[in-house]
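Hi there, hope your week has been kind to you so far. Thanks so much in advance, here it is.
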Amino acid sequence: MYAKAGLICCYWERGYFFLFIRVWHTVFVGSNPTIHTNFQCMHDPETDSIKAVLQRKREEAPLRPKGMLSSGSTLLNLACTGNPWRAFMRGAYYLIPGDSSAGKTVLAGTCLAEAAMNPLFDGYSLIFDNAENGALFFEKFFGPRINARIKPPKYDAEKRPMCSRTVQDFYYNAHDRLTHKPSVYVLDSEPALTSEAEQKKFKKKKAAAEEGEESAGIMSDGKAVVHSQNMRNLAALARDTDSIVIVLTQSRENMGFGAMYDPKTRPGGKALKFYAQLEAWFSIKKTIKRTVNGQPRKIGIIASVHVKKNRFTGKDRTVEIPIYTSFGIDDLGSCIDYLIKEKHWTGTEGTVTAPEFKFQGTKEKLVRLIESTNRERDLQALTGEVWNGIEAQLEVHRKRRYE
């Protein structure tokens, strides 16, 4: 049964092979004794038909893993999985491309903070591979206790943090950390990495320049080849160790004929997307400003996050998330904006009517009310109900062909 079900799922999508087998064994077989009997009965090749396997795959929802991590944004969680508290499944790799200053690093730090607060990740290493040498706001946003749990890939002899410099360093560091203990490993970001091939070419060109000679141009840094050779192994290692690997990368302007249909691209080659469970693109929708002393001043952005690739639901969804330079992701504000936008609540920034909270007033006062009464989870659950109610209306209903 295991081999047959796995073979069929693998034929559809490589990622679903791992997900289906792990979900069935750990959740269904392990928790329901009646399943053992049914499982043995279905082991007969004569009765274990393709139709039966397909039916079980549909009934066993893929979002029943051993544990998932929140992104820190209810709307992004919903775009990823349809669940307001889950975005990233353990045992997988995720790709986050996007524009500069669009909130990717804030999201990465928030994911690490969520892991630090989640008991499921108590035994995990939380690794921030700061290849860009940025992200100096973690303690400001998340506090000293959580910031203390976030570590670099390794330290030098003088206990100074050492992050990846080459793409080869990244794979070596990730391998060392994941094999030592389960980890949430974030690379920020892939374009900041050089490669051994690029370093060799640089030394050759430098030597030629010092001798007053010309040298051939650089056609490629070789990183796409390295990713193609190593990402499948890293994705498998994440699966085997129940780790989460998140790679941030920068968007670039697409050139040529295809730019009119897809204006953004990213470096690193196709393997980065191919092995990812999710690909979520960040861009800046608009800036958030506040007038002080008669002058409009920028205090944040509205980030547009487009989940282009999704092995959990298969859905292409875009959400908008406010991110403030003094706070980070404004999850409550984004939920309130969403409920107003979808006309579940009436109101604007000035006045919001929220019957579930018996409230009418400004958005900021509603946020204060929810925070002071610890009803954040109620708002998140309501947002999830509205989201999934809309998703239900988008379903196409047909007679099932394989029953």
About this structure: Residues 1-51, 56-64 have pLDDT under 50 and may be disordered. The chain is about 45% helix and 20% strand. The chain has three domains: 2-59, 68-325, 330-403.
